[in-house]
Design goal:
Shape: elongated
Number of strands: 8
Oligomer: single chain
Largest sheet: 4 strands, antiparallel
């Protein structure tokens, strides 16, 4: 209690310039040094905030490097006489693409629950294929293997689908609500008030 009172009196003395005349030289030197010395708690908080700001900037730079991929490819004609619209997908795959890139091209014939849409997770490894008629498939895009496939109840249409933070959870925008499922096809949550 005594120290708190003493600190309060020192603050009051520091704020009132008239008190400077009543002080002896050693007290004046102490007052001047006290004013020059930064507040340690405030200085520590400012250092901590600056450190967090720098860490956030570094994390943002890392995320930018990961998420901003190169621009999509395009075909350019070598001369004016060359026509690129006549090139077929098979010709492009066989003669013009790198082997690793050509391996990722696949063809699906899905007519029963069409039209279909597809989205990939952030890593590009897994894809979710969804049909408007209620068909959902999770697939490994690197090995082109089926991870999970299930169908919704009759009459349930899917408007859109997307992975959440990784491939273990995904959201389906259905006829009336948005549902969250896990990678085993089990309904986790229904977002009924988020329209």
């Amino acid at each position: 209690y005594q120290n708190r009172k003493r600190r309060q009196y020192l603050k009051e003395d520091d704020q009132d310039p008239k008190n400077m005349d009543n002080l002896n030289p050693s007290q004046k030197r102490a007052l001047v040094s006290r004013k020059k010395r930064p507040d340690r708690i405030l200085q520590a908080k400012m250092n901590q905030m600056e450190t967090k700001r720098l860490q956030a900037a570094m994390a943002g730079l890392d995320a930018e490097l990961i998420l901003n991929t190169e621009q999509g490819g395009l075909m350019e004609a070598e001369n004016e006489m060359e026509r690129t619209h006549k090139m077929s997908q098979n010709e492009l795959k066989k003669f013009h693409l790198h082997e690793q890139t050509a391996r990722h091209i696949f063809d699906l014939k899905l007519e029963q629950h069409s039209p279909y849409g597809m989205h990939y997770d952030r890593s590009g490894r897994y894809g979710i294929l969804y049909g408007k008629g209620g068909h959902i498939s999770l697939m490994d895009a690197h090995t082109l293997s089926l991870k999970k496939e299930f169908y919704l109840e009759q009459g349930e249409s899917i408007r859109d689908a997307t992975f959440l933070h990784n491939s273990t959870l995904f959201a389906l925008a259905q006829k009336k609500n948005v549902f969250i499922y896990d990678d085993a096809g089990v309904e986790i949550h229904r977002l009924s008030e988020h329209i």
